[in-house]
Write a sequence for this structure.
């Protein structure tokens, strides 16, 4: 059974990986939400459990390998590969291009799942998809813990499978409805406990 979205949200909240309030992001923009997947993945047991839930959606795909883009995709690819009983690779940028280094290789025809922590535009994953395809392997699915595409097509030509679909609006400080309500903006992590 796939987990309910509520259960996944609860897991993220427990980890302090999803906060609600009025946040000043490092980009300088403001947001009513703060999402930091690294915080949910810092507990290996929690990461393993989430990856197992994601792997359950891929059972029919006869996957041979999981590939994730560094840095965000490394842990998700690794835990997803553990759950699927296959190997995990990561792609990383060299001179600006996504590359398989460290002796990582794909076999022609190999069935590959791409893995990421959060998909927003999908740009890095599309580059990894091209890399996998150029190696003669086949991307059969794309999976992420969080879908932050807000309904925009990330352009994989395949559905994105995610445990949590979330919209994280961002506002220019001059145009922020929370500022207009007079709520103070805080830097995420500046409070000891997550907002409920
Ligand atoms: Zn604001």
């Amino acid at each position: 059974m796939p987990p309910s979205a509520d259960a996944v949200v609860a897991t993220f909240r427990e980890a302090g990986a999803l906060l609600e309030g009025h946040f000043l992001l490092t980009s300088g923009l403001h947001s009513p939400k703060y999402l930091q997947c690294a915080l949910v993945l810092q507990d290996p047991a929690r990461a393993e459990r989430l990856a197992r839930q994601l792997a359950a959606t891929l059972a029919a795909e006869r996957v041979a390998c999981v590939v994730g883009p560094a840095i965000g995709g490394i842990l998700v690819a690794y835990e997803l590969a553990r759950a699927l009983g296959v190997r995990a690779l990561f792609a990383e940028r060299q001179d600006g291009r996504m590359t398989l280094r460290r002796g990582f290789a794909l076999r022609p025809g190999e069935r590959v799942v791409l893995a990421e922590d959060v998909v927003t535009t999908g740009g890095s994953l599309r580059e990894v998809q091209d890399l996998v395809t150029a190696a003669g392997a086949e991307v059969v699915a794309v999976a992420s813990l969080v879908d932050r595409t807000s309904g925009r097509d990330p352009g994989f030509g395949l559905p994105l499978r995610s445990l949590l679909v979330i919209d994280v609006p961002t506002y220019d400080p001059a145009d922020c409805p929370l500022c207009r309500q007079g709520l103070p903006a805080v830097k995420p992590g500046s409070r000891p406990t997550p907002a409920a």
Notes: The pocket of zinc ion is lined by residues 22, 30, 173, 176, 178-179, 185 (CB under 6 Å). The longest strand covers residues 138-147. The beta strands are 18-24, 30-35, 65-69, 87-94, 97-99, 111-119, 138-147, 160-165. The mean pLDDT is 93.
